[in-house]
Amino acid sequence: MSVEEDQLEIKFRLNDGSDIGPKKFSCATRVSSLKEDIIAQWPKDKGNAPRTLKDIKLISGGRILENNRTVGECKNPLYDIPGGVTTMHVLVQPPPTQKERKKVHSDDPKQNKCGCVIL
User: Is residue 103 part of a domain?
Assistant: First the structure.
């Protein structure tokens, strides 16, 4: 296998339609390394910048990619054209703040009641 065959050219599509890349990555590169690269190259003028790997989900070919997988393991013959650029969609979802967590896990007794009506 040549060096060219062992690499995949990837661009990362952000939620506003702009892209980071394309850039070539070895098939042995882990998804977590791709996420680190995204954080490092995130455009400074865009809001909602990810801070950690957990803030980012990468989607390729309709699948969410796991951090411990390699780029080679994530290749999909239906979507990845040899010699072409693979587009991975970037979903940024920062973890909820303390205030948001309190709303979800509220101890409000009204939220914990369930009512049924039988006619």
Answer: no
22 within some domain: yes
Tokens (6 digits) for 95: 């973890």
Q: What is the mean pLDDT of residues 81-95?
A: 81
DSSP β-bridge partners for residue 36: none
**Do 58 and 20 contact (CB within 8 A), yes or no?**
no
What lies within 8 Å, CB to CB, of 63 at 6+ separation is 74, 76
What does the DSSP assignment read for the chain? --TTTTEEEEEEE-TTS-EEEEEEEETT-BHHHHHHHHHHH--TT-SS---SGGGEEEEETTEEPPTTSBHHHH--TTT--TTSEEEEEEEE-PPPPHHHHHHHT---TTTT-------
Measured CA to CA, the distance from residue 99 to residue 84 in angstroms comes to 45
**Number of structural domains found in the chain:** 1
For 26-64, what is each residue's pLDDT tens digit? 989 999 999 999 999 998 888 788 889 999 999 988 899
